[in-house]
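Note to self: keep these together.
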Amino acid sequence: MASLDPVLDKDGVRLTVDDAIATVTLTNPAKRNAQSPALWRALTQVGRSLPGSVRVVVLRAEGKSFSAGLDRQAFTPEGFDGEPSFIDLARGSDTELDATIAEYQEAFTWWRRSDIVSIAAVQGHAIGAGFQLALACDLRVVADDVQFAMRETSLGLVPDLTGTHPLVGLVGYARALEICATGRLVTADEAERTGLANLAVPADQLDEAVRDLSAALLAAPRDAVIETKALLRGAQERTYEEQRVAERAAQARRLRDLAGVGD
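Structure:
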């Protein structure tokens, strides 16, 4: 990849921007890119820092693992420096606990904004919060050594970083329940076969595959991609007839725009 000056580089997260493509890199391979509240705040800041020129956001990670999930330090009595421990959070009020979890979730919510298409390039382990971060993106390209797992239930918790909705949408309720309740590993073959991954490639071809996909996405006019993304995202909540109406309205906007005719 080209060497670019980072727009942001803190708490295990680096953002670089090359015209229409932003690259978000997890930069703590020594800890297998384990996640913390500080990392989540950095990811939230990334979403707020994207220039308007960005159309594609690539999420990648240094090292052999995409992300091993939540840093286990969170479960110790001392927690992270300057952060309330999970034990402290559990002792707080329902309102305080809800607000804290909502703040953590912000790191995972902006990846599906209508004005961008996000691609997770995933290698090695993507466990728990790592799995949910990959699920936060629109698309996933995985290396053939990838291992997804949702381990929260095994720890007596639930997946709460926005991963349950896209997981059910991708693989269906029954498979999603089985994956979450058992905490088992999902390999590259299964991920591609079930729609969890758009593409599985040899590990040494991961960056090239993501570059090719990014280029293909950029080849289409931006406004058409935005309208199409909105149509597809809303399709699950609409009836067939409502989707037909939405398609007509979106197409009318595109035709007027192409013809230079105002509403």
